[in-house]
Amino acid sequence: MKESQPSAIYLKDYQVPPFLIDKTELTFDLDETTTVVTSRLHMRRNPASGKSTQPLILDGGPDMKLIGVAMDDYQLPPEEYRLIDDKLIITATADEFLLTCETLIEPQNNTRLEGLYRSSSMFCTQCEAEGFRHITYYLDRPDVMSVFTTTIIADSKRYPVMLSNGNEIERGMTDEGKTFVVWQDPFPKPAYLFALVAGDLAVKDDHFVTMSGRKVALQIFTESHNIDKVDYAMEALKLSMRWDEEVYGREYDLDIFMIVAVDDFNMGAMENKGLNIFNSSCLLASPETTTDDAYLRVEAIVAHEYFHNWSGNRVTCRDWFQLSLKEGFTVFRDQTFSADMHSETVKRVEDVSFLKTAQFAEDAGPMSHPVRPSSFIEISNFYTLTVYEKGAEIVRMIHTLLGAQKFRQGSDLYFERHDGQAVTCDDFIAAMEDASGVDLSHFSRWYSQAGTPVVTAKDEYDAEQGIYRLTLTQETPETPNQPTKLPLHMPVRVGLLDENGNELAAGYQGDASVEHVLDFTQASQVFEFTDVRECPVPSLYRGFSAPVKLRYDYSSENLLTLMSADSDGFNRWSSAQQLAVNELTQLIEQAKSGVELSIHSQLVKGFKRLLSDESLDPAMVALILALPSQAYLSELATSIYPAEIKQARAHLKALLANSLKDEFKKTYQSLNTQVDYEATATEIARRSLKNTTLSYWLETADEQALVAVAEQFSNANNMTDQFAALSIAVQNSHPQADTFMDAFYQQWQNEPLVVNKWLMLSASQERPDALDVVTGLMSHPAFDLKNPNKVRSVLGGFGQSVSAFHNLDGSGYAFLADQIIVLNKRNPQIASRLCTPLTRWKKMQPELSSKMKAQLERIMAEELSKDVYEVISKSLL
Ligand code: TRP
Ligand code: ZN
Fold first, then answer.
1. Which of 100, 543, 658, 806 is the right S-S partner for 70, CB 3.0 to 4.6 Å?
2. Which CATH number fits domain 569-875: 1.25.50.10, 3.40.50.300, 2.40.128.110, 1.10.357.140?
């Protein structure tokens, strides 16, 4: 273990920066062995700081070599500055001065992928959250905003493309015959939005005319072999730019907007001002190599990063505790954009399903934290589902409480009031309140209270008076450092149905309509509806109007009614899920007690109706047919029995498949048309239902189904269908599954993004030698430990293999721990994210729980990065 343990930083300790940097001039002399970075920082004491004698403390990094530092051209002798814990400290400073610093860095040896590093043949940067300090000494905090001018010097034969933020203002040759290019970004920004790219890149050019008639040049850069895969991203960019004008009144502000794809990237993408950098897996798309899911992801992430230009860049965060200010809001914006481009209900179901599976699990575990955390050890660990997805739910609730029009007035006020500033979540709330007149003081508790509220609904119907009383009770479980919880303010969208599923009008607070939004603010509250004709079936939290766990004692009949008739499409899905969860819970209990599994499934009836109703969106049918996932059932369990959950799911799936064999076969065949690939909502929906029904049909082991899978695998004209056939074959032990896997690799070995899918599927197989397979993959020529996408494919895939990862002998956990220990040194951010499955140890069945804990302790005994230390130590508390 480390001698000194990393310490936490607290929101309550926030202080304004003692110094400001008005202008930042950077020069990069790029080279394969050492890169020289010269910075000229035009600094002054911050008048708002009051601390007029405080020394200047600049953030730095461990792999940076300081060559020299000067103040107003006076070269500081070593005794006039100190280097302590990667920080550069200068005691004597004037009120205003020019600080010049020269540092040496080695991007080619940077495996953390933070700061300046190499990916394939290019140089690129990732500075959020605290990567800039690995490039040069700086006040690396988001409330220090500066105008950046960047000079890049490089050999133009190897690096013909040299990019940074803003506009290119100058270009020429140095005395040594290298090329230099100067970029200037007129908008003051924090260092985390700085970017630099240099390489031999191909470009796709386009343009966009903004709402005020300005022409903006659009450029997407990739390595030349990928430039044929950026058309879809370019269209998504133009759609995003138009949408942000129409829906938020936000116009783009520079004359050029660039996107670069890189292969080695820790996250999805980054919103650097005017120069977004993308993980190539989130940008490139072609029908032959990209699945429908990935197409939609490209569109959503292009939009997300573009939207940050206002929600993040023009208005940025005061400190990293406010991360959700930009991320929650921007996720809400990209979710709404995708809903507008495709189907609102389908998008909502997908987002909520993800939230309830992964964010709820995070919020119930040792890393649970409020959307605005109050402390952290390593900020990279707080780019979480809570900050992003639950943060988006908070913004969505504000939208519901205010209504679309007032919400827009609120966002207009927010952007206008805070343009060019670094602000807090409270400032966002204040703008929403000031523009709408709605009091959000109680509501804002959502930012500071962690944990998922559990809402219990009870009701009674008074037939004589025609009154329906709904009692809602809320309780939030204890989370780390927050033993007691207060009630939250949430909007509850409610409709009432009669026994046939028709909407019942009801009076609520003098308003007679078929849907009401209740203001639920107390620990327990009674809502009274009048003029209710008959005893209703309540449709609660329509559209998932608040991120809670709802408990209401629905009968199977009620759920079937809601599933087939609710006017709220989201709740149709949600009711089907609930019905399936109820049945699966019974089956899991049977599996745990070792009895033979058996159930009279009500879902058969519901699914049969669904498959014969041609009025439904096929995408919704596919979502309803998909059984609750292994991960979601694990989240719901008080004690997780992975093998039993798997067994229960397999049982129910087989039962449904055999009961409805003809329906599945017929639906598959009717949808299996040969048409050119299109990534439209209609076509994506068709493929989705087609492949879902194929998976059920194959489950019956019908000869014809075996043939259908083989044919689809060989003849598909797009990756969605080919990969679906392959996964279905692998998951259902199709006799040719291994042959298909080999053929697939042979066919796609030169397309790294497709190979990643193959790696993931290979690693997730349920087979007796699964651990050997995964070990083999780690030394496969297609694998590369430096590439986060490959690591995620193999280890993420492995985590899905129930029999291998959750092997009762603990070998799966030990293997993952081995990889975490190796990656801890090379790439702490990725190592830390790989720890997630192990953080759930307290919820595992006893035999597995102790095995997981032992691995956490083994990791804890190593010398750890701050990233891994924080997750492991908090998990062991
Ligand atoms: N701000 C990025 C986003 O759009 C997140 C991000 C990209 C990031 N790369 C990162 C965060 C590296 C931390 C480290 O959501
Ligand atoms: Zn973001």
1. 100
2. 1.25.50.10
187 alpha carbon – ligand 1 mean position (Å): 20
The backbone torsions φ and ψ at residue 320, rounded to the nearest 5 degrees and listed phi first, read -75, -10
Q: What is the CATH architecture of 201-309?
A: 2-Layer Sandwich (3.30)
pLDDT of residue 53: 86
Sorted by where each begins, the domain ranges of the chain are: 1-111+124-198, 201-309, 320-547, 569-875
CA angle 58, 60, 63 (to 5 degrees): 160
- Domain at 1-111+124-198: CATH code: 2.60.40.1730
**DSSP helix/strand/coil, 822:** helix
Q: Does domain 320-547 have CATH number 1.10.10.10?
A: no
Residue 5's pLDDT is 87
pLDDT value of position 2: 43
For the CA of 304, the nearest atom of ligand 1: 4
Residue nearest to atom 11 of ligand 1 (CA): 128
Which residue out of 119, 125, 128, 388 has the highest number of ligand 1 atoms within 8 Å of its CB and is therefore the one to mutate? 128
| Bridge partners for 29 per DSSP | 36, 153
- Output the pLDDT for position 294: 98
**pLDDT value, residue 1:** 40
284-287-290 Cα angle (round to 5): 50
Tell the residue number behind the tokens 């998008």, with chain if given: 347
Q: Extract the residue ranges of the chain whose pLDDT is less than 70.
A: 1-3
Residue 305 annotated in active site: yes
The confidence score (pLDDT) of residue 89 equals 98
Residue 395 CA to ligand 1 centre (angstroms): 20
Q: Which protein residues touch ligand 1 with a CB less than 6 Å away?
A: 126, 128-129, 266-267, 269-271, 304-305, 327, 380, 383
